[in-house]
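Protocol step 4 of 6: structure prediction from sequence.
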Amino acid sequence: MSAPPPLSPESINSWEFLNLNNLHTIVCDCGDKIVASQIEMQRLKDQLGKDFIMCRVDHISLQYKLEYHNRQLKAIVVVMGSVMVAMFGMMVVLGYEHNIIPMVFMQP
């Protein structure tokens, strides 16, 4: 396939290839469609912006809830650990006090 011949300087600067009637027809015939499309695009942008804001608010709310539950879980773990240490301490103290633990370890 051969390349088209280069344009001459006269044809480059001429306005013959531009038909203003066609351009006017396109703008007049499609003007309503263009305006409707622009309005629809603006509506979609506004809706997308609102959706983004709502999504961001939901994300921040969820993040605060997760942080709150994380703090609650840490507090519960500390309390349960403290209770277990206290119970073990009571077992050791009461066991030595009543000579239960040495007897258990001395059995054959």
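Step 5 (inspection) to follow. Residues 17-106 form one domain.
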